[in-house]
Automatic annotation (TrEMBL):
The keyword Transmembrane helix applies. Residues 90-107 have a biased composition (Polar residues). It comes from Aphanomyces stellatus. The chain crosses the membrane at residues 134-154, 174-195, 355-373, 379-398. The keyword Magnesium does not apply. InterPro entries: SAM/pointed_sf (IPR013761). This is Aste57867_25270 protein. The gene is Aste57867_25270. Keywords: Membrane, Transmembrane, Transmembrane helix. Residues 90-113 are annotated as: Disordered.
């Protein structure tokens, strides 16, 4: 029995790398040791495409690259450990009858319990209180100086002019309160777009994210709809699933699977022979045993290539992109929130800060009205202005993110949606996060293996493996002639097919490294999103927000109205 491949290649030092290359698959990569002798495992995994291109021969270096990437993926993702001989530490989740119909174990059903998912950590959200810039510091200094002059240096002179301390406090507090209120309620509107992830409150109105006294963030509430909309945009404008999967080279897949496949073939053949006729197998010459194994080995790569070609041709039947994206995004709503907050952090912080400026402008206008029309009832001025400021500033803040869609110039000022003007930068971040957390090789392979179309996949795989076994065991006619019988031989073939198909999921997971590089989804998404028109880019992210923006605008108005009544109560008492 071959020894187990241990450890994460990323942790190997140069001598461990060389030792593994000399021993793996009887020294398959030993000819590359001289070229790689100075590299640690981590350095090898981090080599760029041009650096790999300089390592010759190319075919062997590519095989080394994807083998190590696959091993690293398996260890880091906690897949079932695989011995070099092909045996796993955990039972296969899929078992097959000799009839060819798939039998699913309890763990593999779509509605079955899943393993505890590690929660995604929330990314940084622009805090309510940030480090003040020079404008804020200067404003505070001037405010303090004004307060000292009004209340300590010139109180008597101001009182003689009809400006007692109480009146000064009332008038000056109007813009100050407006600044603080607008800053806070705009930040609150932004925060409530994304949080809380689940409804928090007394009683939730069915089908909404609101309740008697509670709220759920718009993005997590609309997460599934948003994910489905994103998939439709992806498939219509960004990704052609067939074109993406056409990048996978069946020959390279065959090479990547060779170490695992070849190491299991002898064990499978021996298992079957010992099961059906142990006495015959024990007396067969080693040369005959080797011929049987070598014949299967010889035929296997060709049939793997043929099977991968067929999977690619039927990718629409065996892979449901929408189900994969939605299910992975909804595993943890924090993922979707992180994507939007990370991409839009600068815009969120800018809008939060602009709340203070908008609050100051509206506060000054309110103060002027208060002074110009002293006979106008405070029961009208403060509540009306509070309602206006709360509603208008929230509306402006939300509009500034995505509008105007196309740049407009008014006098010397260029107006453009804050999110849209950073399209290339956002495209890079969005492409990276989607490729890393959603459309990664692991999720794609797991979706193909366990998604709603997985039955079709295994039917296809079973048919191909059965054909491969039939072709590869033609040499067994000499065994039949000794007396094993055709019926027994057919049973052996069926059992071999069952065993190979059982190992198919774990085998396929070992090409994650190659799949990740071959699909190149990060660069594809970045270039495609970056090339969208401003209108299409806005449609990629904005539609779901639009449906619920009115709630945040209404909330701002309600808070402004409440603050207006508080100001009225202070003024009258």
């Amino acid at each position: 029995m071959a020894s187990r491949v241990d450890g994460d290649p990323a942790l190997w030092n140069p001598s461990q790398v060389a030792s593994w290359m000399n021993s793996f698959e009887d020294g398959r990569y030993s000819s590359l040791v001289i070229q790689m002798k100075a590299f640690s495992g981590r350095q090898i995994l981090d080599l760029t495409d041009p650096q790999w291109a300089r390592i010759q021969p190319t075919q062997l270096s590519n095989s080394l690259r994807y083998t190590l990437l696959g091993m690293h993926q398996v260890v880091s993702a906690n897949f079932p450990r695989l011995d070099v001989d092909g045996s796993t530490d955990t039972e296969s989740t899929l078992q097959y009858h000799a009839t060819g119909s798939p039998k699913t174990t309890p763990e593999s059903g779509r509605g079955a319990k899943t393993k505890q998912i590690e929660r995604i950590k929330p990314c940084e959200f622009p805090p309510m209180l940030a480090r003040p810039n020079w404008v804020v510091i200067l404003s505070l200094v001037l405010l303090i100086i004004g307060a000292v002059l009004a209340f300590a240096v010139f109180p008597n002179q101001l009182k003689e002019q009809g400006w007692p301390s109480s009146r000064i406090l009332t008038v000056s507090s109007i813009p100050l309160i407006s600044v603080v209120f607008t800053y806070v309620h705009i930040w609150l509107a932004l925060f409530m777009t994304f949080y809380p992830l689940e409804y928090f409150g007394i009683w939730q109105f069915p089908g909404t994210n609101m309740g008697v006294c509670g709220w759920q963030g718009i993005v997590p509430f609309k997460g599934e709809k948003m994910a489905r909309m994103a998939v439709r945009i992806m498939t219509s404008q960004l990704l052609d699933v067939r074109e993406v999967f056409s990048r996978i080279d069946p020959k390279q897949v065959s090479k990547e699977l060779e170490p695992i496949l070849f190491s299991t073939i002898r064990d499978i053949v021996e298992t079957m022979a010992l099961k059906y006729n142990p006495s015959l197998w024990s007396v067969l010459p080693t040369s005959v045993k080797d011929e049987i194994v070598e014949k299967v080995k010889e035929e296997a790569p060709k049939h793997i290539e043929e099977m991968m070609v067929e999977i690619k041709e039927h990718i629409d039947d065996v892979f449901d992109l929408e189900d994969m994206v939605v299910s992975n995004m909804m595993k943890d709503k924090q993922l979707l929130v992180n994507m939007f907050v990370t991409c839009g952090y600068q815009e969120l912080a800018f809008i939060r800060n602009s709340g203070a400026a908008m609050g100051f402008i509206f506060g000054v206008l309110q103060m002027i009205l208060y002074l110009a029309a002293p006979n106008l009832s405070v029961y009208i001025v403060f509540p009306a202005f509070g309602l206006l400021v709360g509603t208008l500033t929230n509306w402006l803040a939300l509009k500034m993110i995505f509008e105007p869609v196309n740049p407009r110039k008014i006098l010397c000022i260029k107006l453009h949606g804050l999110f849209l003007r950073r399209q290339q930068e956002v495209a890079a971040m969005y492409g990276f996060m989607v490729a890393k957390d959603v459309l990664n090789a692991h999720n794609i392979i797991e979706s193909i293996l366990k998604g709603p179309a997985s039955d079709k996949l295994f039917e296809l795989v079973y048919a191909n493996v059965q054909q491969s076994v039939n072709a590869g065991t033609a040499v067994a006619d000499r065994i039949v002639s000794i007396g094993i019988g055709k019926d027994t031989l057919n049973s052996i073939k069926d059992d071999i097919t069952d065993l190979v198909v059982q190992k198919f999921p774990d085998s396929l997971r070992h090409i994650e490294g190659y799949t990740m590089v071959a699909l190149d989804l990060e660069n594809t998404l970045r270039s495609k999103i970056g090339a969208l028109s401003f209108h299409d880019f806005e449609r990629l992210l904005h539609p779901v927000f639009e449906e619920d923006e009115w709630k945040l605008v209404l909330m701002g108005g309600a808070l402004g109205l409440a603050l207006g009544f508080l100001q009225t109560a202070y003024e009258t008492h």
